[in-house]
Every structure is written in C-alpha cells, then in structure tokens.
Amino acid sequence: MGLFSNQFANVVEWEEYRDDLLFWKWTNREIKKDSRLILKPGQDAIFLYNGAVEGIFTESGSYTIDSEIIPFLSTLKGFKFGFNSGLRAEVLFVNTKEFTCNWGTGSPVRLQAPGLPGGLPVRSNGKFSFKIGDYNVLIEKIAGVKAMYAVDDVRDRIKGILDGLLMKWITQVGGDVFNLMANATEISKGIKEDLDMELYGIGLTMTDFRISEFTYPENITKRADQAAEYTMVGDMNRFQQVKMVDAMTSPSTKTGNATTDMAGAMMGMQMGMMMANQMVNGMQNNTQPVSGQPAGPNAGGAPKFCPNCGSPTNGANFCGNCGHKLS
User: Fold this and answer.
1) Please, is 113 exposed, middle or buried when counting C-beta atoms within 10 Å of its C-beta (0-12, 13-18, 19+)?
2) Is the pLDDT assigned to residue 222 strictly greater than 90?
C-alpha cells in the first residue's frame, strides 16, 4: 500500500463555519490519498506538522492533496513523508476578514471635575475593528493550545483594560470634562495605539477605534440643560417664567384624578395670570422715562388747552394767547 490509500479519502475544510471565529483547527486526522483541500474566499489554510508551519495557502479553491499540496509542502522545508500510512497533520483555517465590535464602559469612569469631590461619573461607547496580523505569533500564543478563537474572546480581553485606557487618555488629552466629545478624535487615537500594542502580543492588529458618545448622569444632564435655558432666556425672572410654563404644560403634572387635575389647572391659570402681570409690569417699567432725559410734551402735567381762553398750549408753561400760567 502506498503513502495514501484511496480508502477513507477525506475532505480538509473548515467544517461548521462560524462568522465570529478568527480561526478553526482541522486536527488529529490522517490526510489520505485523493483527499482534497477546500479553501473558501476569506480563508487562509496553514499546514502544521509537529507544531511548525509547513505551508500557507491563500488562494481559494479545491486542491488535490497528493498531487498539489504534498509537492508544494515538500519544496518548502524538505517536508518528508513515510510510505506506509497517511499523513497526520493539522490544518489551521484562518478568517482573513476585519472584525468590528461594539464596546461600552463596564462601569462609570470617575473624572476630576470642579465642584464634584467624588468625581464626575462618565460612561462611553463606540466601535473598534481588528484583524489577524501575524500568523506565527497567533500560533505560538493562541492556536497552539486552542482549537478555535472567537471575537468574544478578543472583546473580553479588550474590555478588561478599556476603562483604564479611557481614563488615561481623557486625563492626558485634557479639556472640558463636560464636553469630552470635543476631544473624542484625539482620545480615540491614543486608545487605539495602546490597544494595538496589547493585541500585537497575540498576533492581532487594531485597525480602528471610535468613540460614539460620552454620557453623564441624568441629574448632571438636567442641570446642564437648565444652565443652557438660563443662558438663552437671559435673566432669572424670565427663566422662572419659562419653568412655570413648562410645569403647566408637562404631562407629568397630570395625576388622573379629576379634582386634583382641576385644582392644578386653576393653580396653573393663576400662575399664568401672575406671570402675565409680571411681564406687563416689566414692559411698563421699561417704557418709563429715564431720570435725566428730556420729558415729553405732556411729561410735566401741562394741559393740552388753556383753561382760561381755550387755546392749544403745545406743551408750553404759559398760554401763548392770553399768557395764563399753565403749570
């Protein structure tokens, strides 16, 4: 019987393919004569013999083991075979695509902020992308002891250090902690470099890292919104008026009880009338002549017509017709 018996010929391929796997190992089986290697697009096949890389196939297609694969391996590193049995080797199928994952902080990152002794708790989320970069390192560090490796394994590895890197680069870049998105690009760049160094140690490379948003506690966000409202309104009296209107129109003020809602509506009407009166008084105060400015025609209280002869006064202190004193 020759090197490869035509009995029990098999197919060497990535069985039960999963899109979330970085690699899958075809192992612990003999490669027989007339067996075939099937390589699909987006896959590389690495032949391993006694733990060493003997050949890497990158072109998709179907290859005959004894006529196409074995001669190729033999010319690489003096690959030698016996002639009494099939070849027992391992084939590592590698997913060559770029993987993209969502990320989010596991717990709030507390940043130093003025007026907040305990720090400002901030959360963040976004996306990162990676791919396999070095087959030899991947085999040495991971594939040598694992039959497969999934995207979740990489995500867990990154998740363990991401919160610390986020705090590191936010602090290092600096800027307003209440507007971190202004520096998101620079923060992302620093984190990507650190994560690339981390993944390099297992044969992977980080191709992209992005921050989608920073989120703050709800009460902090509300205070920021109130400050923005105050800035837009301009003064405290008008700010209070806006808040009164919001309170009257907010659905959360309705209880479902007719009596309570009616009382609330009446109170709202009263508050609205009070607000209207305040606005009218403010407008009247704004139209009063300022001290030191010339008075208008009737500002001194002089009558429009002379009470003595009935002639128009035109705002004068004495009647131009009879000379009567008007004020």
Assistant:
1) middle
2) no
